[in-house]
Design brief:
Elements lengths: L1 E9 L9 E7 L19 E2 L2 H11 L4 E6 L7 H13 L2 E7 L13 E5 L24 E6 L2 H13 L8 E6 L18 H10 L5 E2 L3 H5 L8
Parallel strand pairs: 2-4, 4-5, 5-6, 6-7, 7-8, 8-9
Antiparallel strand pairs: 1-2, 1-3
Bound molecules: iron/sulfur cluster.
The site of iron/sulfur cluster has 11 residues, from loops.
């Protein structure tokens, strides 16, 4: 499979945020979100066998733990990504999959935690999510909206209500989009939408969802890769 990077860091943007996690970042994406922070995944990377990926994951985290399969869009390499997830689960890892939900989610191993990033209109990819995928979400899965504006917030709010995504599950996370050119200092001024504003909207609407910040961007330089 075509791999951009494998590294260990803290999980940054789900209900697992803050936990140590090995990231396996696959190459390629079929979307072009305007605030994308992973454009370096669009091409390149290295060809690695399943055995080589497993060895690297086991070297970084020999005692099990969290592994996130991410991209780009990892399901563009569906056959290899599923085989990898099956191997990771068999080896005792808890597997998270970050996906836009544009590809089918029906063939994934049942144990995988799907973190589905439903694109809002101001990402430029607001039509990307495949609505049929909602039926394949389970209580262990998470739906995330990256929000850059009031328009995005209202899209997310109506999506949550229309599809009854709130309690009991799956978990729903709203996260302010980060500026692409953010670098150096690490503060909320780098968010395209002030998190305080987003919090106030969520409270005013009694939205049963979690406010998420991309904590890795507040810990390390936002422009740094492999963290
Ligand atoms: S889906 Fe992810 S990797 Fe692809 S363009 Fe959007 S933010 Fe970037």
């Amino acid at each position: 499979m075509q791999i951009i990077e494998i590294f260990k860091s803290l999980q940054g943007e789900s209900s697992y945020a803050g936990l140590p996690c090995v990231f396996v970042r696959l190459a390629g994406c079929n979307l072009r979100c305007v605030w994308c922070d992973s454009e370096y995944t669009f091409k390149g990377g290295s060809r690695m066998s399943l055995d080589e990926v497993m060895l690297e994951v086991q070297r970084l985290s020999p005692n099990g733990g969290l592994v996130e399969v991410t991209g780009g869009e990892p399901l563009l390499q569906e056959r290899e990504a599923i085989a990898l997830m099956e191997r990771l689960i068999a080896a005792g890892y808890k597997v998270l999959l970050e996906t836009s939900g544009e590809r089918p989610l029906d063939r994934l191993p049942a144990q995988v935690v799907k973190i589905v990033d439903v694109k809002c209109p101001d990402s430029g990819e607001g039509e990307a999510f495949h609505i049929d995928n909602l039926q394949f979400l389970t209580p262990r899965d998470e739906v995330k909206f990256v929000v850059a504006s009031r328009r995005d917030y209202e899209f997310a709010r109506e999506f949550i209500r229309e599809h009854d995504l709130s309690s009991p599950a799956p978990s729903v996370i709203l996260s302010p989009a980060f500026r692409k050119d953010a670098a150096g200092s690490r503060d909320v001024a780098h968010c395209l939408l002030d998190p305080q504003l987003l919090a106030e909207w969520m409270l005013a609407d009694e939205l049963n969802a979690r406010l998420g910040l991309q904590i890795h961007k507040f810990i390390w330089d936002p422009a740094l890769k492999g963290v």
